[in-house]
Amino acid sequence: MKIISKNFKLLAVFLLVLGITGCSDDDDGNPQPTVCTADAGTLTATASSVSLSGGTATISATANGDIVIPANYDVTYVLTSGTNLVIEDAGANPSFTVDEAGLYTIHTLVAETSDNTDANFLDLSVINFGTTTGGDVLGLVTSNNLCASLDVTGAPVQVTFTVVDLAIDAGFTSLAAALTATDLVSVLQGDGPFTVFAPTNDAFTALLNATGLDLNNLSADEEALVTNILLNHVIVGSNITSSDLVSLGSGYVNTGATGPNDANLSLYFDTSNGVVLNGQSNVDTNNVDLMATNGIVHVVNEVIDLPTIATFATTNPALSTLVAALQYADTGTPTVPYIATVSDVAAGPFTVFAPVDDAFLDGTNGILAELGLSGFGEGTGELNAATTDAVLLMHIVSGNIQSSELPNGTVGTLGGDITADNTNFTLTDANSRVSNIVTSLVDIQAVNGVVHVIDKVILPAQ
């Protein structure tokens, strides 16, 4: 609302001027002040907050019965917007329809606005809606020494268009139904900001058909599951635009969903070919950056599943050799059925130190070159399944250990002890080989564990 556009001192003057102005002559012909009895009184908003629906919202107020209207004076209700009290509309009733979110205030104005021959005539025709402010009205009153009264405080109403309102307005009925079934409506009507990846109705139908979930008849466990799935589409505390994602290229963000120890789950995005989330859900580039008062919405074509360790291993191309190692170890007699385990939402939780591709393949630092091996296989000069199994076990710790919880000292992996330095973020194996934890790629949280990326393969004791 564009409150008087000068300063707060002018606002005080405004109130005084509107309360006592006008004059008359005494018996000697000298001008004498006349007490102005006009009093706009006060208003109470029908609702302090309303939501846009179908693109509009009606806001209204009720007079509190303390208005004083001098003879021949008129009552006009004035709608202003923003903190500068920009005048948007005026009428005979304290009810207005608006089509944009924001802060509005309904004021009462008591003034002579009909008789242009009256000394106190206030000419409202000079008001340009959307431009004229309370400061401009102040100028009219003070320069013409008029008797008038305006309830400057008025009845404020916040008009919102939350991400929930946007979803409903855009026809995402399945998302709206899921939010209602899980009591998440009030959460996403909060202050935010929220970045929401909104699945289409078809995407939700596919999920419900595949899982057999009935949003109208959820058990407590099912409701918890659906709640977490929905929150896996929400980034809390940020407005992330499509251009932000594209400029980043690829990376991880935390969602509102939670995993082991209530740690927030990660979401991997890759913009090398459109915008793909966790390797499965594509952002509709024709339906992005839909703005709400408490966030931003991007439409996606699939419901984003709760991620597993396998999700992050298989979607990030920098970890493709690790995936190949897991797959090859499974061809032998693995200590752990790797692919099945890291894909199992009920497994673990585990902490995985994940070597990047260069840790395996780079000619200078890669373990295959370091050991004089050509690749994975059972032939001479290849890393066989049994040895691959032993190497992989050195990268897995039982439990969900985030980077902030990394101990300083001995860490027991499934394959043997290593030494962690939580100051320098390094891991040292029994062969005194040092792996650096990539600090920009830690705490990649899945439902069955957490991944920290490292730059060197950890070996069993030689």
TrEMBL record:
UniProt KW Signal keyword: yes
SMART domains noted in UniProt: FAS1
Domain of life per record: Bacteria
Keywords, sorted A to Z: Signal
Secretion signal span: 1-25
GO cellular component, as recorded: extracellular space
Pfam entry (one): Fasciclin
Domain (FAS1) ranges: 159-304, 306-458
Gene3D superfamilies, per database record: FAS1 domain
InterPro entries named in the record: Adhesion/Biosynth-related, FAS1_dom_sf, FAS1_domain
Name of the protein in question: Fasciclin domain-containing protein
Source organism of the structure: Winogradskyella flava
